[in-house]
Specification:
The structure holds 2 protein chains of 2 kinds. Chain A is an alpha/beta fold. Chain A has helices at 5-18, 42-51, 105-116, 148-162, and strands at 24-29, 32-36, 56-64, 68-76, 81-89, 94-96, 119-121. Chain A has a single domain (2-162), classed as 2-Layer Sandwich (Beta Polymerase, domain 2), CATH 3.30.460.80. Chain A is elongated. Chain B has helices at 3-14, 28-37, 68-80, 92-96, 127-145, and strands spanning 17-22, 49-50, 59-63, 66-67, 86-90, 106-108, 118-120. In chain B, the strands form 2 sheets. A 5-stranded parallel β-sheet of chain B has the order 2-1-3-5-7. Classes of the chains: A alpha/beta, B alpha/beta. The A-B interface holds A 130-133, 135, 141, 148, 151-152, 155, 159 and B 67-69, 102, 104-105, 107.
């Protein structure tokens, strides 16, 4: 397995630097590294990554694991993608904004807020994105407990009432 | 029929001006509409001109399923067109919602918002199909006027 030595080097470097902070890590294949970090250490790790050439936040994807919601930050130096996974409890889902490090994150974070209902601290107020205007508050379509048929029925009833 | 009405009908039949509106299409149908309008298929030989404003248009050519965000704006643009007005639904999405039907942000076909004169199925609809619909619309108009 000589083709992933570079990835192992990067991961070892991160582990030496942050120790216990890196909770769980895998090298999925060549140029794909997955690490889990706690929410309060996220910005520290990201800052270190950015200083070391990982200047591009490719996207942020959200996930719903039942008890936990979370986000995966896909950060790349255009050769290797590091996927930072951050979890937050479902009762009170809050993530800190990464706008200070990656200004491009505005739309991704707004999307996370709308579709998963994770409150992003430090994100400026704005209109719904990508959900349409007037979408009911507190409904987040990409959560696992949302039933699409019921949601559509509710939205159609709301629309016919407004007309 | 008075001479004035005859002239109006003649001009209406010989030069239906259109406006193209995208209510949330994937751009496939938009490309086919452009294809139908440009010299290869040349809808202009029927006197059809693409206009930039709904106030100048007789026919609205709509592609794409209506998203919930777009529905209100779409209705408003439709209301700005002068009477008599016609709507062509181009593509499977505009006819029924297509693959996007049932999504939380999609309302469905455009007939949920405005009345439709002709449906053109296909994904995307071929330029020949669009031309066929246009010709049918004009002949129906001609028949109904007599």
């Amino acid at each position: 397995m000589s083709d992933i030595t570079k990835e192992e080097e990067i991961l070892n470097d991160l582990k030496n630097k942050f120790g216990e902070t890196i909770e769980n890590s895998t090298i999925q294949r060549k140029s794909r590294i997955w690490i889990d970090v706690p929410e309060n250490k996220k910005l520290e790790v990201m800052k270190y990554l950015k200083e070391n050439g990982y200047y591009h936040l490719s996207t942020i994807s959200g996930f719903d694991e039942g008890n936990h919601l979370g986000a995966i930050y896909h950060i790349t130096n255009h050769k290797i993608i590091i996927n930072l996974r951050v979890r937050t409890p479902k009762e009170k889902p809050v993530l800190k904004s990464v706008l200070a490090l990656y200004p491009v994150a505005t739309s991704y974070e707004r999307e996370i807020e709308d579709l998963f209902g994770i409150k992003v601290e430090g994100l400026p107020q704005g209109r719904n994105y990508p959900l349409p205007e007037g979408f009911p508050k507190g409904v987040h379509p990409l959560r696992k407990d949302i039933k699409l048929d019921e949601l559509n029925k509710m939205l159609n009833e709301k629309r016919s009432k407004e007309e | 029929m008075k001479l004035k009405d005859k002239i109006i009908l003649w001009s209406r039949l010989k030069s239906p001006w259109i406006i193209h509106f995208n209510t949330g299409a994937c751009n496939g149908c938009d490309i086919e509409i452009v294809d139908a309008l440009t010299p290869r298929y040349d809808l202009e030989r029927f006197g059809i001109l693409l206009k930039g404003t709904p106030r100048h248009a007789d026919v609205m050519v709509v592609s794409g399923s209506v998203t919930r965000q777009q529905a209100k704006r779409f209705k408003r643009i439709y209301d700005q067109m002068p009477e008599p007005k016609f709507v062509l639904a181009v593509g499977a999405c505009a006819c029924s919602g297509g693959v996007f039907d049932g999504c939380y942000s999609v309302l469905g076909g455009i007939d949920k918002v405005v009345p439709v004169s002709a449906y053109i199925p296909g994904c995307p609809a071929r330029p020949e199909a669009i031309i066929d619909a246009v010709v049918k619309l004009i002949t129906e108009l001609e028949k109904s006027a007599k």
